[in-house]
Amino acid sequence: MDLEALTRLESLRVTAQILDGKATAAKIREEIALEITAWRDSGKPAPMLAAVLVGEDPASQVYVRNKEKACQSVGIASRVIRKPDNTTTEELLELLAELNADPMISGILVQLPLPKQIDAQRVLDSVLPLKDVDAFAPENVGLMVQGRPRFLPCTPHGVMQILSRYGHQVAGKHVVVLGRSDIVGKPMAMMLVQKDIGFGSAFANATVTVCHSQSSDLASITRSADVLIAAVGRAKLVTADMIKPGAVVIDVGINRVGDSLVGDVDFGPVSQIASAITPVPGGIGPLTIAMLLKNTLAACRLQHSSSTN
Length: 309
Ligand code: NAD
Prior knowledge:
Layout: H1 3-11, E1 17-18, H2 21-41, E2 48-54, H3 58-74, E3 77-83, H4 89-101, E4 107-110, H5 120-125, H6 138-145, H7 154-165, E5 174-178, H8 185-193, E6 207-211, H9 218-222, E7 227-230, E8 248-251, E9 255-257, E10 260-262, H10 267-271, E11 276-277, H11 284-308
Parallel strand pairs: 1-11, 2-3, 2-4, 5-6, 5-7, 7-8, 8-11
Antiparallel strand pairs: 9-10
Helix pairs in contact: 2-11, 3-11, 7-8, 7-11
The structure holds nicotinamide-adenine-dinucleotide.
Nicotinamide-adenine-dinucleotide binds near residues 185, 255 and 288.
């Protein structure tokens, strides 16, 4: 850290507001559970999520188990279809065709990563857009980019929930997104530049800069960010000297360091400079799962209304 940054750290004794993703996700799950009760009380079927899990990857097993538990907690039925490691692309496509056609299934998720022999893009592309609760399908991406989303992708949607529920407006502000993946960085940037993506105009209309692995002089860009969203996957990439005093810092990264999980942001020092910050764990992770539940309920509603019209 250079002298200037050290001086800045010394002079600022700001303790950032902690944006509690765990508590926010619990609140959202309560809201979803109430909506599902009302939906069922009107005689409609329970939403159902089908998760396709291929192989034995331990992290994927944990993720799918957590998603199952989350479904249960709000009244969404879930079905996990486990396939062996040597499953072929064709076999998965057949399975997805069955799930697409099954009227009891509202949403389908294919747990990533898939084993190497599988053409992951073909498999993901075969999920019916109306059941694509991850919002990865080109049709759903296109609708979102045009500002008329069917489903919002879960992780950026979780970021929007935390910004809006804590009242951190982004309109007219400079938001810097670190990372340009199809799952987080790109859709995040696209959502922030819309006129309104469903949270009101104050939580849209941002001026957005996207940085990636080929961006040079990252710090000079991040230092002008009113809101910084890190989604890179490199532990403590974002240091205190990269932060504008008073910025809102959202840490999407999840990195295993020894036995613990850390984000992309050097939490302790950055929280002395930022005005608000998400922790890892307990930040965006729980919200991502809550948004999957939200999308599954939305998918159920959509399918029900399209089948009765
Ligand atoms: P990815 O590997 O697909 O993308 C990483 C991005 O970071 C790339 O676009 C790359 O260009 C960019 N990048 C690499 N080095 C960089 C650098 N030095 N400066 C700026 N950008 C750089 O990863 P992803 O799927 O987008 O996930 C990113 C992180 O977020 C990972 O740690 C992942 O585990 C985490 N994640 C968390 C959640 C959650 O629910 N909290 C969900 C998805 C991903």
